[in-house]
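Researcher: Here's a chain I'd like modeled. Treat it as a single chain, no partners, no ligands.
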Amino acid sequence: KLQFLYLIGHLPSSPRQHQQMCNPRLPAAGGSPVTEGPREPALPNVFWPFTNLVNIYALGDAQRGGHGTAAGRAWYAELLIRVLRANPYVFLALLSYYVLPYPNLAHDAPGGADRIDLWALDDIESPAFRWAVLITARNLALTVALYEGWHWVLYESAVAKTFMHRKINPSNIVYVRENPADASSELVPELDRTKGYDPATCRRYSICGVLIESAYELAMLHLWTVTWRSERAEGAMYYTDFFGGTAAHAAASVAWVLFVLVWRDFHFFWVHRLIHPWFGMRVGDAASGWRGKLDLGAFLYKHVHSLHHRSYNTGPWSGLSMHFVEHILYFSCVFFPSAVLRQHPLHFLVNHWHVLISPLPGHDGFYEPQGGGSYFHYLHHAHFECNYGTPLVPLDKLLGSFEDGSKYKVKEA
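Model: Modeled as a single isolated chain. Structure tokens:
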């Protein structure tokens, strides 16, 4: 009972059709299995989107290549890969901190006559209002540029046709004549927006999410620049020298950046699991009786999280396409540890940009090395009640919701 597919009018007519919709590696009935050739040489995807763009142009229209797995790696290998792939979020944090420095964070001394109350937004001439506008504009500009730019590269650019075979599920791609009036003109791929990914709708919901995260950032600044600076005489709840002049301080600062990566995945799993049915293992199959009445997850899925699952064949804008209640829950990770422990503003900013941008490569719908390659999370969107978290924090394996996709694949005989 795939209640969500009933609602959007895409319920497959047979189990075989459902398997094909959710797993493009299955052949059509009576067809030959799709085999996987050796992986083409490629640049490791350690700095999205730059390394991905290099791979797009370097590999061209090569028809071979490995096709993702959700089997997972050893935790230390996964952590190493996550550290390497954190490069774009660290870069955005550095860019934000040094190009648009936060107000009043250049001094550790509390109080001060020049303190800006970032809640005083009623006066459009006030510094607080200007900072609120600047921070919100910065978040919108960078987020929209990255999401829209990556959508354009994957679906609308001149090179999109050269790697469309790398799409995890190509069922929403149709081929049309480049010149409709010329029957001999080249066939080019075009996105069918009715089949699991509507970028215009996803874009609107995503922008609402950026506004909510901008409000969270302003709340964090308020704590730093007003509340804690006035209440804690011995010093503010942040520090401005990242490396601190000692090896121990430098190691602690770097360790907190690594902690953000693990914390983000841990937080994501539990928030995500909260808004799926607790007692029914399939959407629409919530347990009856008293358990069904108390299933808050089923209620939240129906009224909140189902909006995100309208993207059952995900694209770049799918990542932040959520109900505002889900945005409130999802973005709440940015308050820890920065709102609890003494941190450098860069720790908050790494968390901030990771929560804003990491859903983009995680939902782009393409295999590596051209795309983000998140087959693990693709399986969640295709099959709903599996893979709530990430391979780095293996809570799915511990709690029995892990799916590696092997049962949906057809292998060469």
